[in-house]
Amino acid sequence: MKVKMNVQTAYHGELLRAGKVYEIDETTAKRWIASNLAEEVKNEK
To answer: How far apart are CA 14 and CA 44, in angstroms?
Structure first.
């Protein structure tokens, strides 16, 4: 699942920066979205 980060955090030894889009697993993504740490990115075609 693609998410746009609202905060900077470390995830599996990788630095995820605020404002950038990353691909992470769905379970973690949903938890971060619920906690307002990230926003879901819809696939645009």
So the answer is: 26
